[in-house]
Give the backbone structure.
Amino acid sequence: MSLLFSPIRIRSLKLPNRIVMPAMHLNFTMDGMVNKKLIEFYRLRAKGGCGLLQIGGCPVDPEAGGEYMIGVNGDKYLPGLKSLVDVIHSEGSHCGLQLYHAGRYTYSFFLGGKQPPSASATLSGLTREMSREMTVEEIRKTVQDFADSAARVKEAGFDVVEVIASAGYLVNQFFSPLTNLRTDEYGGSLENRLRFGVEVVQAIRRAVGPDFPITVRLSGNDFVEGSNTNKENALLAKALEAAGADMFNVTGGWHESRVPQITNALPRAGFAYLARNVKRLVKAPVAAANRINTPEMAEQLLRDGWCDLVSLGRALITDAEWPLKAREGRSADILHCISCNQECLDNIFQLKPLGCLVNPRVGHEDEPEAPKTPAKKVLVLGGGPAGLTAAATLARRGHSVEVVEKRERVGGQVFAASVAPNKSEFATLAETLFRQATLAGATVATNVELDEKGIVARRPDLVVLATGGQPLRPPIEGLDRPEVVEAMAVLDERRSVGQRVVVIGGGPIGVEAALYAAAIGTIEPETAAFLLRHRAEDPETIRALLWRGNKQVTLVEMQSAVGQGIGKSTKWIAMKEIKEMGVEVLTQARVVRIDDAGAHLDTPEGARTIPVDTVILAAGMTAHNPYANLAARMGDKVVVVGDAGGVSDAAGAIRDAYRKLRAV
Ligand SMILES: Cc1cc2nc3c(=O)[nH]c(=O)nc-3n(C[C@H](O)[C@H](O)[C@H](O)COP(=O)(O)OP(=O)(O)OC[C@H]3O[C@@H](n4cnc5c(N)ncnc54)[C@H](O)[C@@H]3O)c2cc1C
Ligand SMILES: Cc1cc2nc3c(=O)[nH]c(=O)nc-3n(C[C@H](O)[C@H](O)[C@H](O)COP(=O)(O)O)c2cc1C
Ligand code: SF4
C-alpha cells in the first residue's frame, strides 16, 4: 500500500495524500491582487492531485515585502483570495497561505529608501544593507499584523495558515544570535530569542480559533556561521508547537548561506535528515523538503520514517500532474525538474515572472490552447532540446511527426551539459524530453543524417530545422595542434586530459570544462563516506581529497570576469568551486598562440607562456544550420528552432520551439 497516497490529519484538516506544494513566489502579480495567471497556475496543480498547496509568501504589512507578492495585509485582497481558494477546492485540493515578513531581507528601495526593520541593526548578507532595530511597539504591531492577516486567510476560505520561520526572514532574525543583539525581553537567552516567533504563533492561534491548522516553514539548520544549527532549530519547532503550530515543513539554510540549498549540488533529498531531526522533538506531522524528485524517493522517505509528508516545490512547477502520474504508476511520464533554477528562482531574483526550463507552458497556464489545424506530416531534423520539444508540441496537436537525429542518441548538447560537477540532472532532461516526444506519438530515428534529396523524398508538409549549435573557433595560431580539443568534445565524450590544462574562454561552458578537468583525481563521495565513517582520515584531509584533483588548470578569459551568463542562484557555487578546486583564473587575458612551448598569453601584466598538455577550447558557440539553402527554398514550409536559429541555451531552445509550433 502506498504511504504517499494515504491520508493524513493536520489538526482539523484531513489531507487525501502526503504531497505538499510549498509556498513559492511566482511574480505573477505586480499589484498583490490575485489574477487569472495565478488562478490557472494553481488550478492545474490542484487538478494534478497535490494534497495541500501553500500560496505565497504574502507580506503581513507593506514593509514586510513587495507589492509584487500576493497581498493579504488588507481587506481589498479578500475577493481575489476567495476566488483562488474556490478554484483549488473545486478541483478537489486544499490550500494554505504563507504569512511573510522579510525583515532585513527587504531592500530599502522597496521601502521608499527607509532602512529595513529587523531584530537588531545588522548588515544583511543578502542586500548588503544595514537594518534598524525594531522598537517593542513595532514588534507588538508586527505580531498583530500576523494575527490580522491570519484572520483574513481564514475568512478567504483557506484550509491552513503558514508562518515562514525559514530562509533567514524575520522570525529567524529574532531567533538567531547573529542577527538578534537585543538586550530586552526579545534578545539574549534562547527563551527570549524564541519569544517573537512564539508570540506570532500564539496571536495567530487566538485569531483563527482552536480548530484552524497552523503550519510553519522551518529552517532545519541556518547553515550560517554563528547562527542556529539543527539543534536550536529543532527547539524552535518544539516551542512553536507548544504555541499552537500543527505541522512543520523543514527546509535548510538562509538566503545568505554558503551551503547550496536548491541546486543540483545538493543531492536529491539531501535535507531529509533535517526533517527527521525535527520529528524527534515534535508530535506534529513534519514534511521533508528540497530536491525530492521522484515518487519512488518520496515513498521511501515516508516508509523509512524521515518525515510524514513530502514537500515538492519545483517538481510541481515542472509537472502539475506529478501526483496523478505517481498514483497511476506512470513515474516515467513525469517531467522532471533538473534543479537548474534558470527560469524559476533566477527569474524571481530579476523580478521576472516564474517559468520553467523543462516545461515551457509554466507561467502561461492562462493562455488557451490554439485551435487544432489539419494534420500535417512533419520532419524534425535534430533531436536536441529544441527538436524534441518541437516534436512533442506538434505530435500533441495531432500531427504525424518524425525526428531524425544524426548521432547515436538524442539530447544534443544536453549530455555535455550534464558532465561538470553539479550538472548531472541535465541528463534527465534528455530522458524527459525524449519520453514526452514519444509519448505524444512522435517517432525518433537515430544515426540518420539526411541530405536535401532525402528530406524532399519524405514529402513532409513541414520541416523543422533543429540542428543546434557548434563550437566557435577563434583565429588563434596553433588551434589545429593535437593537444587542442573542444570543450564540447571533452565533456560529451568525458575525455581524459593532460596534466597541465589551459581552458580558453571563461563563459559558462569554459567554467564547466575547467571544473570538469579540476575534478579529475578527486575522490568519489563513497570513498569520502568510508574514510569519514571509519575515522580513517581527519575531516580536513577528506575535504582536500574531495576538492583537489591532480590537474593543474588555468582558465583564461578576455573579459574582466569569468562565469558571465551563469544565473545568480548557481554562479556563486561555480565560483566557490573554481576557488576550492584550485583553478587559476586569468581575466582580461587572451591566448594568442599555441606552440611547442605551450600557450602564449597576453595578460594585463604582460606576455606569459604556460606549458600545457591540453588546451580546451570554449570560445563560444554558433548556430549550426546545414540546411540553410533548403530553408531559403521551401519558405514557410520550414521552421528553424533552437540554437540552429541563433545560439541561446536549453531554456531558450525549448521555449523557442514551443512558441513557434504551439499554434501550427
Ligand atoms: C557544456 C555545456 C553546458 C551547457 N549548460 C547549459 C545550462 O546549464 N543551461 C542551459 O540552459 N543550457 C546549457 N547549455 C546549452 C544548451 O545545451 C543548448 O543551448 C541546447 O542544447 C540547444 O538545443 P538545440 O536543440 O537547439 O541544439 P542541440 O542541443 O545542439 O541539438 C541539436 C541536435 O541536432 C543534431 N543534428 C545536427 N545536425 C543534424 C543533421 N544534419 N541531421 C540530424 N541531426 C542533426 C545534433 O546531433 C544534436 O543532437 C550548455 C551547453 C554545453 C555545451
Ligand atoms: C521561485 C521560488 C520561490 C520561492 N519562494 C518561497 C517562499 O516564498 N516561501 C518559502 O517558504 N519558500 C520559498 N521557496 C523555497 C521552496 O518552497 C522550496 O523549499 C525549495 O524550492 C526547495 O524545494 P524543491 O527542491 O522541492 O523545489 C521558493 C523557491 C523557489 C524556487
Ligand atoms: S526552471 Fe529548472 S529548477 Fe526551476 S522548476 Fe524548471 S527545471 Fe526546476
In short: The radius of gyration is 27 Å. Residues 8-349 form a domain with the TIM Barrel fold (CATH 3.20.20.70). The longest helix spans residues 136-155.
